Fold each of these.
Amino acid sequence: EVQLVESGGGLVQPGGSLRLSCAASGFTFSSYVMSWVRQAPGKGLEWVSAISGIGDYTYYADSVKGRFTISRDNSRNTVDLQMNSLRAEDTAVYYCAKSAGLAVAFFDYWGQGTLVTVSS
Amino acid sequence: SYVLTQPPSVSVAPGKTARITCGGSNIGTKSVHWYQQKPGQAPVLVIHYDSDRPSGIPERLSGSNSGNTATLTISRVEAGDEADYYCQVWDSSSDHVVFGGGTKLTVL
């Protein structure tokens, strides 16, 4: 059974940093693109970042490029999102999502999400 | 950047057919994927590659894609179909995932 479990969310001040982690199980982790998708309170889904199976390619939404960094550890089956220079508009539930293959394409499994609140 | 446009809301009576559209420039040349999200829950994939259903998704849900509009059709709508629905594509020109703004389906 595929499981994705996010952790690391919380309250952080504007300008601060936070690191999210997603622990994956139930599939051959290194064979799949992994992504982060966020949802601000009462708003729609917004893709944040993706990373290829072996970590050689990364992709970022324009809204986070230069502030967020995605990485993965295939020995531990984890994918992380380092978030720096956080802004109020980064407040959202952050979901870890698995793509169906080696391309980003679409997301066949999602975690339950972790809430990030940026506020003073 | 590529934009996907969805109606904010669609209402339908139980047993009737709901159609949720997703508009985009030449979207028919892209693969469209659909997600259902109920309150407080993570999204669930309901249609991929325009019209394919993942296992466990009822046949009442179907998808189509042509020209500038992709459509998610839900036949014989049930109360349990009430949810937000999002379309999504991969924009290869920008290497970005793009989501539509979402459509809230209300079952009357």
Amino acid sequence: GQQLNQSPQSMFIQEGEDVSMNCTSSSIFNTWLWYKQDPGEGPVLLIALYKAGELTSNGRLTAQFGITRKDSFLNISASIPSDVGIYFCAGQRGNKLVFGAGTILRVKS
Amino acid sequence: SAVISQKPSRDICQRGTSLTIQCQVDSQVTMMFWYRQQPGQSLTLIATANQGSEATYESGFVIDKFPISRPNLTFSTLTVSNMSPEDSSIYLCSVVQGAIYEQYFGPGTRLTVT
């Protein structure tokens, strides 16, 4: 079946550092989405990417849709304690999303 | 984006019983979905809730276990039937609104089966 490989699995970083995570796939996707999930909450959409090569920012977050349409990365600049959570990538094909396993972000203050 | 609510937010149920989860959206949406998120895991699509017709289930999920209704464009229910402890998960509904494929999630229903 469709699979997304998301890395790293977890990160423990110092407040103020930049963070990078990525997703790769053996299959092409039409859209890449990045979500953040806090404990006890549903995932919140952070950034949506629609075109190969597209680079999109949302505040301190920047994400790119890989040129091959098989990968995407998310960068968080100058991390703060509230960035803690689980970040999921998702690829869209047809009417469905396929999710990565998630990256757990922990920030040391 | 649409405002999505789910009821109940959490429940503890006994094995062998059934629980119906409601998903209400504050505006009409194009598509509605139901996901399961097992403890410490990612999201797995259960089914697409089709308005006025039977839901479309993913491999590994069947209608007898997870009956779904979607009577209109703003409401859907998911029933978890004949529950076992393995059904303990977070159940999430999500929606797509309009032509642009951005999927938004409800807050989830945390189910514990004892």
